[in-house]
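The records we work with from here on pair a chain with its fold. Taken together, the tokens spell out the fold as the letters spell out the chain. To see the layout at work, look at the sequence and tokens printed below.
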Amino acid sequence: MKKLLIAVILVALMGAYIPANAGSNRKQDRARAEVLKHNQGYYKDVFMDGGIYLTSRTTLPATDFLGISLDYFASAANKQLTKVDTLIQHKIFTGCEEDTNGWLLYPDGAPRYRMIYVNGGKAGNHLKSMEKSSRENICGYIAAGGSYVGTCAGAYIASSGTPIRKKIKNAKLYLGLWPGLVYGTGLNKSKTDMRVDKKSPLMRYFDFGKDGVVKDVRHNGGCYVREDKFGDLPKGVEVLSHYIYNNTKRVKIDGRGSVWAYKAGDKAGRVVSCGSHPEGVEEGERREYMAAMMLYAMDGNPTPQPKGELKAGEVREMNKRTEDNAPAYTRIGDKQYHHFTVNVPKKCKKVVVSLEGYEGENNFDLMVCGKRGELAFGNNTSYKSDVKGCNKQLVIEKPKAGKWYVSVYCDTAVTSTVGKYGSEYSGRLDVLNGVPYKVSVKFE
């Protein structure tokens, strides 16, 4: 009873869902909760790409298991593809008049979803079905801090190519989200076991039966990476698990890398690739295996960076659009935070932060928060003004001198429902191109 009470208190303190009956210890419970609590500032957690020539999956069991949100695109089957599929895919990844940079990105280029998951299927055909602008937006999304998990075809797509095609300069075949090659296994319609080493980051979240072996993971034409002296694994690539497969002499993948990860830098998201198919399993270690990849990917989301410093007597106008290429002054998106710094002087009796909307574009709900010494979010600060509308003030009495953080949050968002092709937006579509506002600070 005492242990149960402690677990309940831990969940409340962490503010994140901890899956029941998971193969883990208390340390791993805390590790999962620590990743999941950093989901503020995104419209949703995961976007799933089941687009043209990919598996049109409509559920992702690991998201339900982790208690996180999901939107998705599920195109028609290959033989039933129409122009509608192409139009929807273009709208999602490139954009349209009401959303000029697509679903993945906020108006200022920041990631709108915390992670993208890319299904299996036909990797080359999927990328060929996309315009260059769509491919560039996915790459830009990762570079800006969004994370990526891809299985089978999704793993091929994230790579820089295969040995067969490494001399072919065809940007349509691979995104190059990490700088190495993958190798085809030659194994179809089969299963393999996976070994998660004790030092693997995946072991932070689950113990996989304490032996680190995940059995019977579906495999159909996937890939692997090489770590031996004949391989070409680039610096910075982490191998997270290895194949266990000794069934035939023809397929030689035993001990090869089956899951690997790469993070290009402090500002980029983490890319996690898997050569097999754990994504559709609804229970047990294979589901935990997929969940662990997603957790490690999301753990690579960088800390948001402030837009700049708010100085007393100056009004900062956040009214630029995506096409202006001025992210430090660009409008705010749905469920997004914009962060600013404020240097409060000594002997300051009061800080007043003023927020003001623009005439004709002020029927949105914005919130303003303040916190000393760290980024201000709605759930970690006692200084906030969240009354309805755009126009408001945040007053901080007797502030301590030093560096403070002020944030603006957009509480107005589109409504997402499920239709024939997956998630569909409705309602406040006018928020997709961003909400303009003015913010200023004064000291008394």
